[in-house]
Automatic annotation (TrEMBL):
Membrane spanning residue stretches: 12-30, 42-61, 82-103, 115-135, 170-193, 218-240, 252-274, 295-315, 327-347, 359-378, 384-406
Superkingdom, taxonomy of origin: Bacteria
UniProt xrefs under InterPro entries: Poly_Biosynth_Transport (IPR050833), Polysacc_synth (IPR002797)
Subcellular location: Cell membrane
UniProt key word Membrane: yes
Annotated membrane topology: Multi-pass membrane protein
Protein name according to UniProt: Oligosaccharide flippase family protein
Keywords: Cell membrane, Membrane, Transmembrane, Transmembrane helix
Keyword rRNA-binding among record annotations: no
């Protein structure tokens, strides 16, 4: 059965994510009608590209550092050691990212469509350096994290209406995004330093380099995952204009909002909890996951079905008539929430927690190679619709390969009987009980 803190984390994050889902529903209809598909295309392309630098700075520590802390979340000495490892390593990674960004800005043409937008978004990667999410995840103390994100969403919504009045004001979108990311992660870091009595000191560079090498497999796995997700936007940028980028990225952003609302409360809370349970008893950890999978399946399935059926209505309501071509892209990728939800359970929750890092890396490597190759072919021939098909095909392959590998390792976490409505109600009742 799930412990009280886990229930509180899932409930708190769930409420906050639902509220945060409302914020885009308020601002997007307003913004989309002002800046149009071209403006969205420019911002979303730069956001996708700068995401690579955030990925480099994060370096998978939200997985590996979370795992280290979750094994003993009450050991402040261990938390401080992990904090020093992460912050020193991220400083090195940020310096590397600065030079790589300057080089990219000078050599990649699609990134030069609006240099100022790219620069502002890159400044926002300072928030990746400061982010203490791994600490709050590892200690299963996510309520403060949820509250801060709620405040951030509220302020951003108000300022959007105050500052953005005409198409040229789209710069404010990235200014607000970068500013809030930095300020709120700085606040959370200061809060974590006080709460967990953290003390900073410089570590020898060779120690940080050793850690980066040690954690490189997980980092490369996160890079490979990005290659078959966000890289589709980057590839499309070489074959499509800003409008087509706008049609594709707005449909994908809507999908990602739905995924975040559904997955963040469960995934962010569940990962450290499962890690802790598996360190105590592999059998108990897998039993919990087996109980949760049917619930996750039905939630994601009906969310995906809703998107498929109501895509025309959703696009018109939220984005307006100018984004009508995005309807088909949204329908093509409507079942991404289901695929990503299941692959998150199979890959992040199970494979990484039971130390199947090598297999996780191999699967993501194979799918990344296929995804990039197929992405170039599909985007060049069929534009943004080809990119949409590529995304859903690769996500399905990833989910299937992870499931088959777990079966190969005799980890059976899907029981068909548990999906029956009668048994599902019994499972829900068991899950919500508190020790």
């Amino acid at each position: 059965m799930l412990q009280k803190k886990l229930i509180q984390n899932i409930f708190s994050l769930g409420i906050i994510q639902i509220v945060n889902f409302i914020f885009p529903l308020i601002t997007i209809p307003y913004l989309s009608r002002i800046i149009g598909p071209s403006g969205y295309g420019i911002i979303n392309y730069a956001t996708a590209f700068v995401g690579y630098f955030s990925l480099l700075i994060f370096y998978g520590f939200d997985l590996t550092a979370t795992r280290r802390i979750s094994q003993d979340p009450y050991d402040f000495k261990n938390i401080n050691a992990v904090f020093l490892d992460v912050i020193n390593s991220r400083i090195i990674l940020f310096i590397i990212a600065v030079f790589l960004f300057i080089f990219s800005l000078l050599t990649i043409n699609p990134l030069q469509r609006d240099v100022l937008v790219s620069v502002i978004l890159f400044i926002g990667t300072i928030s990746s350096l400061l982010s203490p999410q791994y600490i709050f995840q590892g200690t299963q103390n996510l309520v403060i994290y949820a509250k801060i994100n709620f405040i951030r969403g509220s302020l951003n919504t108000v300022l959007v209406f105050l500052l953005i009045k005409k198409p040229e004001d789209y710069y404010w979108i990235v200014i607000l995004s970068s500013s809030f990311s930095i300020l709120f992660n700085l606040f959370l870091l200061i809060y974590a330093i006080k709460k967990y009595q953290l003390k900073f000191k410089w570590k020898k560079i060779n120690e940080s380099i050793k850690l980066l090498y040690k954690e490189s497999r997980i980092f490369l796995s996160t890079v490979l995952i990005s290659l078959y997700t966000t890289t589709n936007v980057v590839i499309l940028g070489f074959f499509a204009d800003s409008k087509e980028l706008g049609y594709y990225t707005t449909s994908q952003n809507f999908i990602l909002i739905v995924i975040s609302v559904l997955s963040i409360p469960i995934s962010t809370s569940l990962f450290p909890y499962i890690g802790n349970k598996l360190s105590e008893s592999r059998e108990d950890g897998l039993r919990i996951i087996k109980n949760v999978i049917p619930i996750i399946f039905y939630i994601y399935f009906f969310a995906s079905l809703f998107i498929l059926i109501f895509a025309p209505f959703l696009v018109k309501l939220i984005y307006g008539d100018l984004f009508a071509p995005a309807v088909l892209a949204l329908r093509i990728t409507s079942f991404m929430p289901l695929m990503i939800g299941l692959s998150n359970v199979f890959g992040i929750q199970i494979m990484l927690n039971v130390k199947l890092d090598k297999a996780f890396f191999r699967i993501t490597a194979i799918c990344s190679f296929i995804g990039v190759l197929l992405g170039v072919i599909m985007s060049s021939r069929f534009g943004y619709l080809g990119t949409a098909w590529n995304v859903i095909i690769i996500e399905t392959i990833v989910t299937l390969l992870m499931y088959l590998y777990l079966r190969k390792e005799k980890i059976y976490i899907v029981n068909r009987n548990s999906f029956h409505p009668k048994n599902l109600l019994r499972t829900v009742n068991d899950v919500i009980k508190i020790k």
